[in-house]
Amino acid sequence: MYDYFLGGTTNFAPDREAAGRAIAVFPWARTAARANRAFMHRSTRLLADRGIDQFLDVGTGIPTSPNLHEVAQRVNPRARVVYADNDPIVYAHAQALLHSTAQGRTAYVQADVREPEAILRSAGLRDTLDLGRPVALSLVALLHFVPGEDDAHAIVERLKRALPAGSALVLSHGTPDFAPAETERVAQVYRAAGTAVRMRTWEEIARFFDGWDLLDPGLVATHRWRPDPGEGDPDAGGATADGATDAQVSAYAAVAVKP
């Protein structure tokens, strides 16, 4: 569904049917998906510019170019990226995630975020990343698919503990704060398709960053996190220069660094 919202070509009839039902109750689904993807691109560029050259992207999803390693390796061709996902369809398309630069490296791990130890102990991760040096942990548009309140925060804390000082957490998450009725209806569509969903409030999402230092501008609507020049940010509740509103995006995003 995410690939379909992004205009990708790696999606199937059931995906498109479910996406159509989602759009019927949440007409801005494409806007929200594209704002989220743009946040991933901006945050990856920023961290690569700051010198982080290792990335762990959990909940990768169907590859839709440009993927995280393409963004990071444009800044630093030596960047190393490990992708992790539990979807066998993603695994079938994982070769698209492995076209690294000659100087860098990418790997794919078949694993579920609900089993963080399996990710951390995987040969793909251990052979690709050095956990003694800073790593950017990317949990983008993932944790609203982990419905248990305590489970989701415990998972993130376990992954955070495994990373050294100077590492970063990149996270975006759906929220009911801006359009509660619409987000509940789209969550029902996902549940009917067999995917559990738990939208969280600003306060609940902020907990994922506990103990780490948020970069400016903190936890904000996804499209308001350091928009590229020309995108604008006229006020806290209206539309940005590209026409998106907080309600249409209905997600928060932030980046934090481990002190």
Describe the 3D structure.
This protein has 259 residues and is α/β, with parallel strands linked by helices. The chain has a single domain, classed as Vaccinia Virus protein VP39 (Rossmann fold, 3-Layer(aba) Sandwich), CATH 3.40.50. It has eleven helices and eight strands. Strands 1, 2, 3, 4, 5, 6, 7 and 8 form an eight-stranded mixed beta sheet that branches. Strand 4 (136-140), helix 8 (149-161) and strand 5 (168-174) form a beta-alpha-beta unit. Helix 2 (13-25) packs antiparallel against helix 9 and helix 3 (29-49) runs parallel beside helix 4 (68-75). The longest helix has 21 residues, at 29-49. It is globular and about 45 Å long. It starts with a helix and ends with a strand.
Structural class: alpha/beta
Radius of gyration (CA) equals 17 Å
Mass-distribution shape: globular
Tell me the β content.
15-25%
CATH homologous superfamily label: Vaccinia Virus protein VP39
| Low-confidence runs | 232-241
**What would you call the quaternary organization?**
single chain
Q: What is the architecture at the second tier of CATH?
A: 3-Layer(aba) Sandwich
CATH secondary-structure class? Alpha Beta
